[in-house]
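Long-time lurker, first post. I've been practising inverse folding by hand and with some scripts of my own, and I keep getting stuck on stretches where the structure tokens seem ambiguous. Below is the full token string for one chain I'm working on. Before anyone asks, I'm not after the true native sequence, just a reasonable design that respects the backbone. If someone could post their per-position residues I'd love to compare against what I wrote down in my notebook.
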């Protein structure tokens, strides 16, 4: 019986992805967006352009993958002591980040992907964060609690719509109103 070698977590594939993502992030700061290209990214990452095309297909999908990864939360959800406070803190931080120029570009890259999988990664991250917030509220004895889907529809949907089409119209008051209405 021939034994298969064990899969190495974080092997070559992970190193290539990390190098390509880092190249995109660095070049995005150095080069105007319209000059960003697969060959330029490949050169910076130390891989061949065919590696990028094989894995991501095209520049648009690579940018969406990098954006989706960057949109993953890297800090714990703030615990303010109440469901409403936690939602305002979490969604307010997201709103602030996404109204920035880099945030707007990440949002456009992610939403511009033709890959449902890329967009789903962001949705799953939001679902996970909202579930953590709801679980904490439940542990504090807060009732009744909305569902994750209700929070997505009542808070994240209007927030994402405004971020996409009219970010200048957003305010913390908008956010507080959407949250309050969703919790009623």
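-- Answer (accepted) --
I ran through it position by position. Result:
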């Amino acid at each position: 019986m021939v034994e298969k070698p064990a899969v190495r977590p974080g092997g070559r594939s992970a190193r290539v992805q990390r190098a390509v993502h880092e190249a995109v992030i660095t070049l995005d700061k150095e080069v105007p967006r319209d000059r960003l290209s697969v060959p330029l990214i490949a050169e910076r990452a130390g891989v061949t352009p065919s590696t990028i095309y094989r894995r991501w297909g095209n520049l648009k999908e690579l940018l969406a993958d990098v954006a989706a990864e960057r949109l993953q939360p890297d800090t714990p959800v703030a615990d303010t002591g109440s469901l409403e406070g936690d939602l305002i803190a979490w969604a307010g931080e997201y709103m602030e980040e996404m109204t920035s120029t880099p945030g707007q570009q990440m949002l456009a890259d992610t939403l511009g992907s033709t890959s449902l999988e890329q967009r789903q990664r962001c949705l799953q991250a939001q679902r996970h964060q909202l579930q953590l917030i709801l679980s904490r509220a439940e542990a504090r004895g807060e009732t009744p609690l909305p569902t994750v889907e209700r929070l997505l529809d009542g808070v994240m949907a209007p927030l994402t719509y405004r971020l996409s089409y009219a970010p200048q119209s957003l305010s913390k008051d908008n956010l507080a109103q959407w949250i309050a209405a969703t919790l009623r």
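A couple of notes from the structure itself: The chain has two domains: 12-57, 83-183. The mean pLDDT is 90. Happy to go over any region you disagree with.
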